[in-house]
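Design request, tokens follow.
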């Protein structure tokens, strides 16, 4: 029996990917998530115009995305022969953390963001939201003890400068109630990232994603009921349901890929790479007939910042690989 156990442990070691490979996969997944995010921003901008309010659109979209993620999580759990008792045990031991993800990731910030968006300028809102990379980096360094190197700081500075350029400067940035609500939403999402990163050490990404979107959407329905706007969720037309089906699928895909990236790479790196989504959105706008001339400098700064993050992490992985024991 001892020999069998040693053989099993040895096989497990062979089956596991080396840390540097996992980190590289995490960066690739972060790049994929950034691309999906860029598409989502563009498509959501078109979709929200067809609904009575941004909150009703977001709630409907998140409800369907949550249902998709819950279904996918159950299917994969069955395929992996995950017992119901083990799932219940995970919820019992991490219930408060999962509730935090649902509240601070899938509910409160959506209400704050869209309510703030109705009161703030789109330029100010876009810039404040993109400061997520700064808050996430600070929290990851302080709470998760991720190393924030001078190269990371330089890359983040380029990413922020790129967004400032895209926004046409921040000289007119105001901090009225709308801007403060968007800032609060951004801080909620930054805190969520740290909680999710901790949870990923114990729970599969699919489970956390299902709780984040599914649980958050239920809370959004509660908010609409309390605010007397629940009637906006009924009586949707066929074209509106088509928009919901499209954007909810994009959302479910994004959260799945995003959490898979977080499971394999640092918060500082994946949030930096996610900024690339702004370039994807700009390219889609340009392809639809918009102008990109005024955005060229900002896009270039963002591309350079993301390239620095990826190159730095790959170089770090290569150095670690040279010093590590050869995987056999």
């Amino acid at each position: 029996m001892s020999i069998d156990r040693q053989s099993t442990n040895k096989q497990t070691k062979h089956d596991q990917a080396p840390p540097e490979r996992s980190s590289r996969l995490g960066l690739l997944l972060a790049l994929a998530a950034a691309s999906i995010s860029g598409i989502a921003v563009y498509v959501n901008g078109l979709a929200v115009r067809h609904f009575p309010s941004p909150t009703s659109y977001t709630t409907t979209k998140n409800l369907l995305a949550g249902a998709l993620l819950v279904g996918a999580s159950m299917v994969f759990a069955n395929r992996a022969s995950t017992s119901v008792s083990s799932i219940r045990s995970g919820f019992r031991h991490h219930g408060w953390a999962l509730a935090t993800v649902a509240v601070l990731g899938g509910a409160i910030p959506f209400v704050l963001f869209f309510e703030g968006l109705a009161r703030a300028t789109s330029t100010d809102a876009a810039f404040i939201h993109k400061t997520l990379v700064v808050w996430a980096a600070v929290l990851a360094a302080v709470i998760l003890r991720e190393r924030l190197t001078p190269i990371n700081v330089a890359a983040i500075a380029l990413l922020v400068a790129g967004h400032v350029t895209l926004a046409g400067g921040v000289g007119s940035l105001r901090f009225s109630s709308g801007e403060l609500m968007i800032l609060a939403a951004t801080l909620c999402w930054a805190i969520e990232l740290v909680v999710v990163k901790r949870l990923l050490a114990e729970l599969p990404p699919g489970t956390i994603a299902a709780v984040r979107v599914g649980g958050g959407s239920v809370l959004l329905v509660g908010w609409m009921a309390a605010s007397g706007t629940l009637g906006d969720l009924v009586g949707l037309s066929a074209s509106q349901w088509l928009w919901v089906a499209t954007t909810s699928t994009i959302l479910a895909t994004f959260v799945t890929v995003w959490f898979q990236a977080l499971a394999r790479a640092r918060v500082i790196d994946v949030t930096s790479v996610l900024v690339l989504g702004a370039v994807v959105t700009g390219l889609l706008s340009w392809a639809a007939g918009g102008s990109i001339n005024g955005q060229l400098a900002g896009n270039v700064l963002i591309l350079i910042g993301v390239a620095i993050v990826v190159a730095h992490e790959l170089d770090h992985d290569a150095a670690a690989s040279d010093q590590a024991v050869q995987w056999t």
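Comment from the thread starter after seeing the answer: thanks! Residues 34 and 274 are 4 Å apart (CA to CA).
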